[in-house]
Specification:
single chain; Nucleotidyltransferase, domain 5; Actin, Chain A, domain 4; Substrate Binding Domain Of DNAk, Chain A, domain 1; 3 domains; six-stranded mixed beta sheet; five-stranded mixed beta sheet; globular
Length: 508
Amino acid sequence: MGKIAGIDLGTTFSALSILNESGKAEIVKNFDGDYLTESVVAFPSEEEGKAITGKDAKDHLEIEPDRVIKEVKRDMGTDKTYTVAGKEHTPFGISSMILKKLVQDSEKQHGKIEDVVVTIPANFSNEARQDTEKAIKEAGLNFKYIIEEPTAAALHYASSNSLAGKVMIYDFGGGTFDITIAEINGKDVICKTSHGDQRLGGTDIDRIILDKMKDAYKKDKGVDLVNNKAEEYNFTFLAEEIKKGLTKKEKISKMISGKEGDMKFTLTREEFEKNISTMMSKIDSLIDVTLDELNLKESDISNILLVGGSTRIPIVKKNILKRFNKEPLTGVNVDEAVSLGAALYAGKKADPKKLTAAQSEELKKIDLKTVCNFYFGSVILRENTEKQKLEPYNETMLAKNTPLPCSQTKTFYTMTDGQTAVECEIKQSLAEQGDPDFATTIWKGLLDNLPPNRPQGRPIEVTFSYDENGMMHCKYKDVESNIEMPVDLSIDKDKESDAPTANDFTIE
Protein backbone atom coordinates (compact mmCIF):
# COMPACT_ATOMS: atom_id res chain seq x y z
CA MET A 1 0.00 0.00 0.00
CA GLY A 2 1.38 3.40 -0.98
CA LYS A 3 2.22 6.21 1.38
CA ILE A 4 0.09 9.30 1.99
CA ALA A 5 2.06 12.57 2.12
CA GLY A 6 1.77 16.25 2.91
CA ILE A 7 4.11 18.76 1.26
CA ASP A 8 4.96 22.27 2.40
CA LEU A 9 6.00 23.97 -0.84
CA GLY A 10 7.84 27.00 0.55
CA THR A 11 9.51 30.11 -0.80
CA THR A 12 12.93 29.32 0.64
CA PHE A 13 12.54 25.78 2.02
CA SER A 14 10.16 22.90 1.34
CA ALA A 15 9.39 19.77 3.34
CA LEU A 16 7.55 16.47 2.99
CA SER A 17 5.86 14.43 5.71
CA ILE A 18 4.21 11.04 5.49
CA LEU A 19 1.48 9.38 7.51
CA ASN A 20 2.99 6.45 9.40
CA GLU A 21 1.29 3.12 10.08
CA SER A 22 -0.18 4.33 13.36
CA GLY A 23 -1.76 7.43 11.83
CA LYS A 24 0.85 9.92 13.04
CA ALA A 25 2.63 12.37 10.75
CA GLU A 26 6.42 12.05 10.35
CA ILE A 27 8.70 14.44 8.50
CA VAL A 28 11.02 12.77 5.97
CA LYS A 29 14.71 13.54 5.54
CA ASN A 30 16.01 14.30 2.05
CA PHE A 31 19.09 12.63 0.59
CA ASP A 32 21.33 15.23 2.25
CA GLY A 33 19.98 14.05 5.62
CA ASP A 34 18.04 17.28 6.18
CA TYR A 35 14.36 17.69 6.98
CA LEU A 36 14.16 20.89 4.92
CA THR A 37 15.01 21.16 1.22
CA GLU A 38 16.02 24.48 -0.30
CA SER A 39 13.40 25.61 -2.84
CA VAL A 40 16.09 26.22 -5.44
CA VAL A 41 16.62 24.69 -8.90
CA ALA A 42 19.80 24.85 -11.02
CA PHE A 43 20.46 23.80 -14.60
CA PRO A 44 24.22 23.03 -14.85
CA SER A 45 25.70 23.82 -18.26
CA GLU A 46 27.87 20.69 -18.29
CA GLU A 47 24.81 18.42 -17.83
CA GLU A 48 22.09 19.45 -20.24
CA GLY A 49 18.76 17.85 -19.50
CA LYS A 50 19.41 17.73 -15.77
CA ALA A 51 17.86 19.88 -13.06
CA ILE A 52 19.45 19.80 -9.62
CA THR A 53 17.46 20.95 -6.62
CA GLY A 54 17.93 21.76 -2.96
CA LYS A 55 21.31 22.31 -1.33
CA ASP A 56 23.33 21.40 -4.44
CA ALA A 57 21.32 23.92 -6.46
CA LYS A 58 21.93 26.61 -3.87
CA ASP A 59 25.66 25.86 -3.90
CA HIS A 60 25.57 26.17 -7.70
CA LEU A 61 24.86 29.88 -7.27
CA GLU A 62 28.60 30.42 -6.76
CA ILE A 63 29.42 28.66 -10.04
CA GLU A 64 26.67 29.64 -12.49
CA PRO A 65 24.29 32.12 -10.86
CA ASP A 66 22.53 32.76 -14.18
CA ARG A 67 21.49 29.11 -14.28
CA VAL A 68 19.85 29.07 -10.85
CA ILE A 69 16.22 29.92 -10.06
CA LYS A 70 14.84 30.50 -6.56
CA GLU A 71 11.94 32.12 -4.64
CA VAL A 72 9.44 31.26 -7.38
CA LYS A 73 6.56 30.86 -4.94
CA ARG A 74 6.16 34.63 -4.82
CA ASP A 75 5.54 34.65 -8.57
CA MET A 76 2.92 31.88 -8.63
CA GLY A 77 -0.18 33.08 -10.46
CA THR A 78 1.73 35.73 -12.41
CA ASP A 79 3.09 35.83 -15.96
CA LYS A 80 6.70 36.10 -14.80
CA THR A 81 9.25 33.83 -16.48
CA TYR A 82 12.93 33.07 -15.86
CA THR A 83 15.35 32.62 -18.75
CA VAL A 84 18.08 29.98 -18.50
CA ALA A 85 20.16 29.12 -21.56
CA GLY A 86 17.47 30.47 -23.87
CA LYS A 87 14.63 28.52 -22.24
CA GLU A 88 11.74 30.32 -20.55
CA HIS A 89 10.79 28.74 -17.22
CA THR A 90 7.57 29.44 -15.32
CA PRO A 91 6.98 29.51 -11.56
CA PHE A 92 4.78 26.41 -11.70
CA GLY A 93 7.34 24.60 -13.88
CA ILE A 94 10.12 25.19 -11.35
CA SER A 95 7.76 24.29 -8.51
CA SER A 96 7.00 20.97 -10.21
CA MET A 97 10.74 20.14 -10.10
CA ILE A 98 10.95 20.90 -6.38
CA LEU A 99 7.91 18.73 -5.72
CA LYS A 100 9.32 15.86 -7.77
CA LYS A 101 12.63 16.03 -5.89
CA LEU A 102 10.87 15.84 -2.51
CA VAL A 103 8.82 12.84 -3.59
CA GLN A 104 11.80 11.06 -5.18
CA ASP A 105 13.85 11.34 -2.01
CA SER A 106 10.97 10.07 0.10
CA GLU A 107 10.11 7.15 -2.19
CA LYS A 108 13.69 5.87 -2.21
CA GLN A 109 13.46 5.52 1.56
CA HIS A 110 9.81 4.77 2.32
CA GLY A 111 8.26 3.42 -0.87
CA LYS A 112 5.71 4.70 -3.35
CA ILE A 113 3.68 7.77 -2.45
CA GLU A 114 0.04 7.21 -3.34
CA ASP A 115 -1.67 10.55 -2.60
CA VAL A 116 -0.40 14.04 -1.79
CA VAL A 117 -1.76 17.21 -0.23
CA VAL A 118 0.21 20.39 -0.94
CA THR A 119 0.04 23.59 1.10
CA ILE A 120 -0.37 27.20 -0.04
CA PRO A 121 -0.45 30.58 1.76
CA ALA A 122 -3.90 31.57 2.99
CA ASN A 123 -3.78 34.72 0.87
CA PHE A 124 -2.95 32.97 -2.43
CA SER A 125 -5.04 34.28 -5.32
CA ASN A 126 -7.11 31.96 -7.49
CA GLU A 127 -4.43 32.21 -10.21
CA ALA A 128 -1.69 31.21 -7.73
CA ARG A 129 -3.82 28.25 -6.61
CA GLN A 130 -4.19 27.23 -10.25
CA ASP A 131 -0.42 27.36 -10.73
CA THR A 132 0.07 25.20 -7.64
CA GLU A 133 -2.35 22.63 -9.01
CA LYS A 134 -0.49 22.64 -12.33
CA ALA A 135 2.86 22.15 -10.56
CA ILE A 136 1.49 19.14 -8.64
CA LYS A 137 0.16 17.51 -11.80
CA GLU A 138 3.31 18.26 -13.83
CA ALA A 139 5.33 16.58 -11.08
CA GLY A 140 3.35 13.42 -11.79
CA LEU A 141 1.76 13.30 -8.36
CA ASN A 142 -1.66 11.93 -7.47
CA PHE A 143 -3.04 15.27 -6.34
CA LYS A 144 -5.84 15.14 -3.80
CA TYR A 145 -6.24 18.46 -2.04
CA ILE A 146 -4.66 21.82 -1.37
CA ILE A 147 -4.65 23.10 2.20
CA GLU A 148 -3.64 26.53 3.45
CA GLU A 149 -0.44 26.66 5.45
CA PRO A 150 -1.78 28.18 8.70
CA THR A 151 -4.65 25.70 8.63
CA ALA A 152 -2.28 22.75 8.23
CA ALA A 153 -0.14 24.07 11.07
CA ALA A 154 -3.20 24.47 13.30
CA LEU A 155 -4.10 20.85 12.59
CA HIS A 156 -0.64 19.71 13.68
CA TYR A 157 -0.71 21.91 16.82
CA ALA A 158 -4.16 20.58 17.73
CA SER A 159 -3.06 16.97 17.24
CA SER A 160 -0.06 17.37 19.54
CA ASN A 161 -1.35 19.81 22.21
CA SER A 162 -4.40 20.26 24.39
CA LEU A 163 -5.98 23.40 22.97
CA ALA A 164 -9.35 25.07 23.41
CA GLY A 165 -10.84 28.37 22.28
CA LYS A 166 -9.91 30.90 19.63
CA VAL A 167 -6.29 30.69 18.51
CA MET A 168 -4.23 32.90 16.25
CA ILE A 169 -1.85 31.20 13.81
CA TYR A 170 1.05 33.56 13.18
CA ASP A 171 2.74 32.24 10.02
CA PHE A 172 5.93 34.16 9.18
CA GLY A 173 8.00 32.21 6.68
CA GLY A 174 10.73 32.84 4.16
CA GLY A 175 8.57 34.64 1.63
CA THR A 176 5.04 35.13 2.95
CA PHE A 177 3.13 36.16 6.05
CA ASP A 178 -0.32 34.86 7.02
CA ILE A 179 -2.47 35.48 10.05
CA THR A 180 -5.34 33.06 10.67
CA ILE A 181 -7.84 32.80 13.50
CA ALA A 182 -9.31 29.38 14.23
CA GLU A 183 -11.54 27.80 16.85
CA ILE A 184 -9.93 24.68 18.32
CA ASN A 185 -11.54 22.18 20.62
CA GLY A 186 -9.30 19.19 21.19
CA LYS A 187 -8.50 17.94 17.67
CA ASP A 188 -11.39 19.78 16.01
CA VAL A 189 -10.23 22.84 14.06
CA ILE A 190 -12.60 25.42 12.56
CA CYS A 191 -10.89 28.21 10.61
CA LYS A 192 -12.67 31.56 10.93
CA THR A 193 -10.70 34.01 8.79
CA SER A 194 -7.28 34.74 7.29
CA HIS A 195 -5.29 37.68 5.96
CA GLY A 196 -1.76 37.89 4.66
CA ASP A 197 0.92 39.33 2.42
CA GLN A 198 2.50 37.24 -0.34
CA ARG A 199 5.65 39.43 -0.28
CA LEU A 200 6.50 39.70 3.38
CA GLY A 201 9.01 37.23 4.76
CA GLY A 202 12.52 36.34 5.79
CA THR A 203 13.97 37.01 2.35
CA ASP A 204 12.85 40.64 2.65
CA ILE A 205 14.67 40.87 5.98
CA ASP A 206 17.83 39.46 4.37
CA ARG A 207 17.66 42.18 1.72
CA ILE A 208 17.30 44.88 4.36
CA ILE A 209 20.50 43.65 6.03
CA LEU A 210 22.21 43.41 2.63
CA ASP A 211 21.31 47.03 1.90
CA LYS A 212 22.89 48.02 5.23
CA MET A 213 26.06 46.15 4.26
CA LYS A 214 26.13 47.85 0.85
CA ASP A 215 25.69 51.30 2.40
CA ALA A 216 28.42 50.68 4.98
CA TYR A 217 30.92 49.45 2.38
CA LYS A 218 30.19 52.31 0.02
CA LYS A 219 30.66 54.83 2.82
CA ASP A 220 33.92 53.24 3.99
CA LYS A 221 35.53 52.30 0.67
CA GLY A 222 33.85 54.62 -1.81
CA VAL A 223 32.91 51.77 -4.17
CA ASP A 224 30.02 49.35 -4.56
CA LEU A 225 30.14 46.12 -2.59
CA VAL A 226 28.08 44.16 -5.13
CA ASN A 227 28.97 44.18 -8.83
CA ASN A 228 27.42 41.01 -10.24
CA LYS A 229 24.75 38.39 -9.61
CA ALA A 230 27.12 35.91 -7.92
CA GLU A 231 28.27 38.54 -5.42
CA GLU A 232 24.65 39.53 -4.78
CA TYR A 233 23.80 35.95 -3.86
CA ASN A 234 26.89 35.45 -1.70
CA PHE A 235 26.32 38.60 0.32
CA THR A 236 22.63 37.73 0.67
CA PHE A 237 23.67 34.45 2.29
CA LEU A 238 25.94 36.41 4.63
CA ALA A 239 23.05 38.71 5.49
CA GLU A 240 20.98 35.62 6.32
CA GLU A 241 23.74 34.39 8.65
CA ILE A 242 23.72 37.75 10.43
CA LYS A 243 19.93 37.60 10.82
CA LYS A 244 20.12 34.13 12.32
CA GLY A 245 22.98 35.16 14.60
CA LEU A 246 20.94 38.04 15.99
CA THR A 247 18.28 35.63 17.22
CA LYS A 248 20.77 34.49 19.88
CA LYS A 249 23.19 37.40 20.26
CA GLU A 250 22.78 41.11 20.84
CA LYS A 251 25.49 41.97 18.32
CA ILE A 252 27.05 40.29 15.29
CA SER A 253 30.25 41.27 13.46
CA LYS A 254 31.36 39.89 10.09
CA MET A 255 34.20 40.64 7.70
CA ILE A 256 32.94 41.55 4.26
CA SER A 257 35.33 41.41 1.33
CA GLY A 258 34.80 43.68 -1.63
CA LYS A 259 36.75 45.06 -4.55
CA GLU A 260 38.61 47.52 -2.33
CA GLY A 261 39.46 45.08 0.43
CA ASP A 262 37.94 43.88 3.68
CA MET A 263 35.72 45.77 6.08
CA LYS A 264 34.28 44.81 9.45
CA PHE A 265 30.50 45.07 9.46
CA THR A 266 28.68 45.15 12.80
CA LEU A 267 24.96 45.08 13.43
CA THR A 268 23.28 45.16 16.83
CA ARG A 269 19.92 43.61 17.56
CA GLU A 270 18.58 47.06 18.48
CA GLU A 271 19.63 48.49 15.09
CA PHE A 272 18.24 45.43 13.33
CA GLU A 273 14.85 45.78 15.00
CA LYS A 274 14.69 49.44 13.96
CA ASN A 275 15.51 48.43 10.38
CA ILE A 276 12.61 45.97 10.21
CA SER A 277 10.13 48.13 12.13
CA THR A 278 8.17 48.92 8.96
CA MET A 279 7.71 45.21 8.29
CA MET A 280 6.55 44.61 11.85
CA SER A 281 4.08 47.49 11.51
CA LYS A 282 2.61 45.81 8.42
CA ILE A 283 2.16 42.64 10.47
CA ASP A 284 0.44 44.60 13.24
CA SER A 285 -1.93 46.10 10.68
CA LEU A 286 -2.80 42.65 9.34
CA ILE A 287 -3.52 41.49 12.89
CA ASP A 288 -5.77 44.54 13.37
CA VAL A 289 -7.77 43.72 10.23
CA THR A 290 -8.10 40.05 11.16
CA LEU A 291 -9.32 40.73 14.70
CA ASP A 292 -11.69 43.48 13.54
CA GLU A 293 -13.22 41.22 10.91
CA LEU A 294 -14.42 38.87 13.65
CA ASN A 295 -15.10 41.64 16.21
CA LEU A 296 -12.49 40.16 18.53
CA LYS A 297 -10.17 41.71 21.11
CA GLU A 298 -6.70 40.47 21.99
CA SER A 299 -8.10 39.02 25.23
CA ASP A 300 -10.40 36.74 23.19
CA ILE A 301 -7.38 34.84 21.80
CA SER A 302 -6.48 31.89 24.02
CA ASN A 303 -3.24 30.88 22.28
CA ILE A 304 -0.86 32.16 19.61
CA LEU A 305 0.66 29.44 17.45
CA LEU A 306 3.93 30.24 15.68
CA VAL A 307 4.71 28.89 12.22
CA GLY A 308 7.68 29.56 9.92
CA GLY A 309 11.38 30.20 10.47
CA SER A 310 11.03 34.00 10.71
CA THR A 311 9.07 33.62 13.97
CA ARG A 312 12.44 32.85 15.62
CA ILE A 313 13.34 36.55 15.39
CA PRO A 314 13.13 37.81 19.01
CA ILE A 315 11.07 40.91 18.18
CA VAL A 316 8.24 38.61 17.02
CA LYS A 317 7.72 37.03 20.43
CA LYS A 318 8.36 40.36 22.14
CA ASN A 319 5.61 42.06 20.13
CA ILE A 320 3.17 39.21 20.69
CA LEU A 321 3.74 39.26 24.45
CA LYS A 322 3.32 43.03 24.56
CA ARG A 323 0.10 43.02 22.53
CA PHE A 324 -1.62 39.84 23.75
CA ASN A 325 -0.17 39.69 27.25
CA LYS A 326 0.72 36.03 26.75
CA GLU A 327 3.64 34.03 25.43
CA PRO A 328 3.12 32.22 22.14
CA LEU A 329 2.83 28.45 22.37
CA THR A 330 6.13 26.56 22.05
CA GLY A 331 7.01 22.90 21.76
CA VAL A 332 6.35 22.51 18.02
CA ASN A 333 9.04 22.84 15.34
CA VAL A 334 7.95 25.94 13.44
CA ASP A 335 9.67 24.76 10.24
CA GLU A 336 7.93 21.39 10.19
CA ALA A 337 4.41 22.12 11.46
CA VAL A 338 2.93 22.86 8.01
CA SER A 339 4.05 19.68 6.25
CA LEU A 340 3.13 17.54 9.29
CA GLY A 341 -0.36 19.03 9.36
CA ALA A 342 -0.70 18.53 5.60
CA ALA A 343 0.10 14.82 6.02
CA LEU A 344 -2.67 14.52 8.62
CA TYR A 345 -5.09 16.24 6.26
CA ALA A 346 -4.01 13.94 3.43
CA GLY A 347 -4.88 10.99 5.64
CA LYS A 348 -8.20 12.51 6.59
CA LYS A 349 -9.12 13.00 2.92
CA ALA A 350 -7.76 9.65 1.70
CA ASP A 351 -9.90 6.77 0.51
CA PRO A 352 -10.62 4.78 3.71
CA LYS A 353 -9.64 1.61 1.84
CA LYS A 354 -6.08 2.94 1.64
CA LEU A 355 -5.78 3.29 5.43
CA THR A 356 -4.74 0.78 8.04
CA ALA A 357 -7.07 0.17 10.98
CA ALA A 358 -4.70 2.13 13.24
CA GLN A 359 -4.58 5.06 10.82
CA SER A 360 -8.36 5.14 10.53
CA GLU A 361 -8.77 5.09 14.30
CA GLU A 362 -6.29 7.92 14.83
CA LEU A 363 -7.68 10.10 12.04
CA LYS A 364 -11.23 9.76 13.36
CA LYS A 365 -10.16 12.04 16.21
CA ILE A 366 -9.34 14.88 13.80
CA ASP A 367 -11.83 17.25 12.20
CA LEU A 368 -11.18 20.34 10.11
CA LYS A 369 -13.50 22.99 8.71
CA THR A 370 -12.26 25.85 6.54
CA VAL A 371 -13.69 29.02 5.03
CA CYS A 372 -13.72 30.99 1.81
CA ASN A 373 -10.83 33.47 1.96
CA PHE A 374 -12.10 35.92 -0.68
CA TYR A 375 -15.26 37.61 -1.87
CA PHE A 376 -16.35 36.33 -5.28
CA GLY A 377 -18.76 38.21 -7.48
CA SER A 378 -20.25 38.40 -10.96
CA VAL A 379 -20.51 41.67 -12.87
CA ILE A 380 -24.06 42.74 -13.73
CA LEU A 381 -25.74 45.93 -14.94
CA ARG A 382 -27.65 47.71 -12.19
CA GLU A 383 -29.57 50.98 -12.15
CA ASN A 384 -27.87 53.87 -10.39
CA THR A 385 -30.90 55.72 -9.02
CA GLU A 386 -28.94 58.94 -8.41
CA LYS A 387 -27.56 59.10 -11.96
CA GLN A 388 -30.66 57.43 -13.45
CA LYS A 389 -28.65 55.11 -15.64
CA LEU A 390 -27.39 51.54 -15.74
CA GLU A 391 -23.88 50.91 -14.44
CA PRO A 392 -21.68 47.82 -14.00
CA TYR A 393 -21.96 46.38 -10.50
CA ASN A 394 -20.02 43.55 -8.86
CA GLU A 395 -22.76 41.38 -7.31
CA THR A 396 -21.37 39.31 -4.43
CA MET A 397 -22.04 35.61 -4.98
CA LEU A 398 -19.93 34.16 -2.17
CA ALA A 399 -18.78 36.13 0.87
CA LYS A 400 -15.42 35.86 2.62
CA ASN A 401 -15.41 33.53 5.66
CA THR A 402 -18.32 31.42 4.36
CA PRO A 403 -17.75 27.82 5.56
CA LEU A 404 -16.56 25.41 2.85
CA PRO A 405 -17.80 23.77 0.76
CA CYS A 406 -20.42 26.33 -0.25
CA SER A 407 -22.61 27.19 -3.23
CA GLN A 408 -24.89 30.07 -4.22
CA THR A 409 -27.27 30.49 -7.14
CA LYS A 410 -28.78 33.83 -8.17
CA THR A 411 -31.02 34.72 -11.10
CA PHE A 412 -30.43 37.73 -13.35
CA TYR A 413 -32.21 38.80 -16.54
CA THR A 414 -31.33 39.73 -20.11
CA MET A 415 -31.42 43.47 -20.81
CA THR A 416 -32.66 43.81 -24.41
CA ASP A 417 -35.09 42.26 -26.87
CA GLY A 418 -33.47 39.67 -29.13
CA GLN A 419 -30.41 39.32 -26.88
CA THR A 420 -28.47 36.20 -27.94
CA ALA A 421 -25.38 36.54 -25.72
CA VAL A 422 -24.54 37.48 -22.17
CA GLU A 423 -21.15 38.84 -21.10
CA CYS A 424 -19.88 37.05 -17.98
CA GLU A 425 -17.14 38.31 -15.67
CA ILE A 426 -16.01 36.75 -12.38
CA LYS A 427 -14.40 38.98 -9.75
CA GLN A 428 -12.31 38.30 -6.63
CA SER A 429 -11.52 40.66 -3.74
CA LEU A 430 -10.45 40.63 -0.09
CA ALA A 431 -13.16 43.13 0.89
CA GLU A 432 -16.70 43.36 -0.44
CA GLN A 433 -16.52 45.58 -3.54
CA GLY A 434 -19.55 46.73 -5.51
CA ASP A 435 -17.39 48.71 -7.92
CA PRO A 436 -15.91 46.23 -10.45
CA ASP A 437 -12.82 48.42 -10.84
CA PHE A 438 -11.78 47.61 -7.25
CA ALA A 439 -11.98 43.83 -7.64
CA THR A 440 -9.69 41.50 -9.61
CA THR A 441 -11.05 39.84 -12.74
CA ILE A 442 -10.25 36.12 -12.66
CA TRP A 443 -12.32 35.07 -15.69
CA LYS A 444 -14.25 36.61 -18.59
CA GLY A 445 -16.37 34.87 -21.18
CA LEU A 446 -19.54 34.88 -23.24
CA LEU A 447 -22.69 32.80 -22.79
CA ASP A 448 -23.79 32.89 -26.44
CA ASN A 449 -25.84 31.08 -29.08
CA LEU A 450 -28.98 31.86 -27.08
CA PRO A 451 -32.35 31.59 -28.86
CA PRO A 452 -33.13 34.63 -31.06
CA ASN A 453 -36.21 36.83 -31.11
CA ARG A 454 -36.98 36.66 -27.41
CA PRO A 455 -38.17 39.64 -25.37
CA GLN A 456 -35.93 41.11 -22.70
CA GLY A 457 -36.05 39.78 -19.16
CA ARG A 458 -35.13 36.15 -19.91
CA PRO A 459 -33.76 34.51 -16.71
CA ILE A 460 -30.05 33.66 -16.47
CA GLU A 461 -29.02 31.52 -13.50
CA VAL A 462 -25.54 32.06 -12.10
CA THR A 463 -24.08 29.50 -9.71
CA PHE A 464 -20.81 29.88 -7.80
CA SER A 465 -19.40 26.94 -5.83
CA TYR A 466 -16.27 26.93 -3.67
CA ASP A 467 -14.84 23.53 -2.80
CA GLU A 468 -12.74 22.30 0.11
CA ASN A 469 -9.65 22.83 -2.03
CA GLY A 470 -10.25 26.56 -2.06
CA MET A 471 -11.10 26.37 -5.78
CA MET A 472 -13.96 28.16 -7.53
CA HIS A 473 -16.39 26.47 -9.94
CA CYS A 474 -19.01 28.59 -11.71
CA LYS A 475 -21.89 28.05 -14.12
CA TYR A 476 -23.94 30.46 -16.24
CA LYS A 477 -27.24 29.01 -17.51
CA ASP A 478 -30.02 30.31 -19.74
CA VAL A 479 -33.05 28.86 -17.94
CA GLU A 480 -35.48 28.66 -20.88
CA SER A 481 -33.13 27.01 -23.40
CA ASN A 482 -31.09 25.10 -20.81
CA ILE A 483 -27.90 26.32 -22.52
CA GLU A 484 -25.08 26.25 -19.98
CA MET A 485 -21.53 27.54 -19.73
CA PRO A 486 -19.60 25.81 -16.93
CA VAL A 487 -16.43 27.60 -15.78
CA ASP A 488 -13.76 25.42 -14.18
CA LEU A 489 -11.34 27.77 -12.47
CA SER A 490 -9.22 24.95 -11.06
CA ILE A 491 -7.23 24.98 -14.30
CA ASP A 492 -7.02 28.09 -16.46
CA LYS A 493 -6.88 26.82 -20.05
CA ASP A 494 -5.85 30.25 -21.32
CA LYS A 495 -2.64 30.05 -19.29
CA GLU A 496 -1.42 26.68 -20.59
CA SER A 497 2.27 26.91 -21.40
CA ASP A 498 4.90 25.00 -23.33
CA ALA A 499 7.51 26.01 -20.75
CA PRO A 500 9.62 23.17 -19.28
CA THR A 501 8.42 21.26 -16.24
CA ALA A 502 9.62 18.29 -14.18
CA ASN A 503 8.70 15.99 -17.09
CA ASP A 504 11.41 17.55 -19.27
CA PHE A 505 14.39 17.01 -16.97
CA THR A 506 16.17 14.39 -14.93
CA ILE A 507 15.64 15.68 -11.39
CA GLU A 508 18.43 15.30 -8.84
